[in-house]
Amino acid sequence: MKPDGGFATVLCPFQNRNNMVRFNQSSDKIIRMLTLAGELVVFNLLLVLLYAVYVHYSGTYPPSYKRLMLLMSVIYGLVNLQSGMVLHHRFVTAEQIFNRIIATLFPFILISLLVLWAMRWPLFTWSFMVPFYLAVIIAVFLWRWLARQMVKRTRASGRNQRRAVFVGPPEQVFHLIEQMANSPIDGYHFMGYFNDKEVEKVSKLGPWLGKCEEATAYLEKHPEMCVEELYCTLSSKYDELVHDILAYTENHLIRFFSIPTNFNYTRRSMSMEILAGIPVFSLHNEPLTFVGNRWLKRAFDISLSLGVIVFIFPIVLLVFGPLIKLSSPGPIFFRQKRSGLNGKEFYCLKFRSMRVNADCDKLQATRHDPRKTRVGEFMRRTNIDELPQFINVLLGDMSVVGPRPHMLEHTKIYSDLIGNYMLRHFVKPGITGYAQVTGFRGETRELWQMQERVRRDIYYVEHWSFAFDLWIIFRTIVNIGEPKAY
Q1: Could you give the angle at which helices 17-58 and 126-156 cross, rounded to 10 degrees?
Q2: To which H or E segment does residue 176 belong?
């Protein structure tokens, strides 16, 4: 039923809506400043710990350490002020917080290393600086995670909440409504909705306040609602009405949000660009199209592949090279053309785990494949056969994490059978991938198995983050020796 206009139970706790807006904006600013202040305390505690460790092991005291602490704190604070924080946002995940931390600390590390090098500081050694920076990343993440829990608890108690109304058909964005209305920790309080008719299943939006064309008149008549945000799903055929509502919100300091209603055919994550002043939504959100993300991923690939090639690869080659030669006639390394970034072909390297055969470019390995040698069986189960692919990573043909590269024959076959198969080639192929660590590794006997693998590859393409890569690497290490590794 339409309410009679009484809002005695939800009266604004301030004298007017403008005070509430200022309160929420000030609260967000206070959250950011307190978080940064806490980080500086944590950061300086780590600097003190580094100082104590250096004195303990060297028996000497580094000069001008207090001035150095002050300088490092200033650099850290300025970099944070420039990059900002996201933990006070209404919808934010731990992954997004971690990504923002990496984006902040990367320039800080570069600048601070240059400063320490210029000062000829005695602690400027890998043995001290690498553990220190790793400790900073972990400590800052834990601090921001703790701050986020405090923000959630504050909003769950009813403070720092945004009061909102909804205008337009709500059915097509019901999943968004549930997300916003069901969780008090996200900090939204819906005062009601305007639609051409009352809708039963969206009762969590509050009471039905009237038809869409009555929205501005109703809000004008009820200033005690203290509305701060208005969400609109009206289509372009209501252009004149939308302009009237937009004009009202701008003149009354209400934030206006237009929600596209074309989600009836997709639930994928989409990205938006502005072309000639018109918002254009991309169906495939690819974080690695951003230069900063590509640089971060490439820097990690180069660092890890160099470490593996220099410290691990020679030892493995000395041990398994002779065993491979003794197991069967043929080369130590196996080279095979596979599909890479944007479908470009490249030679993928592996330790040879099978006898030389004519079907190597057509048939997948099976559990009891007679082509495998005994040493090859062990290498495949422990992932040792994939080790030479770090050379591919260093050359830029592959990444440490990404969709596994397929044989050319399989790319041709499955691109015809699976409609969105080629989307997995929007990123570089990887030594390990999301599909492999979530149960879709090894032989694909049935089409649905490859379809599921492709679905997970596309999920990785659209949801890449540095934290996601680290999680996949961790899961890969945990899964070494699993039965499907054949």
Answers
A1: 150
A2: helix 174-182
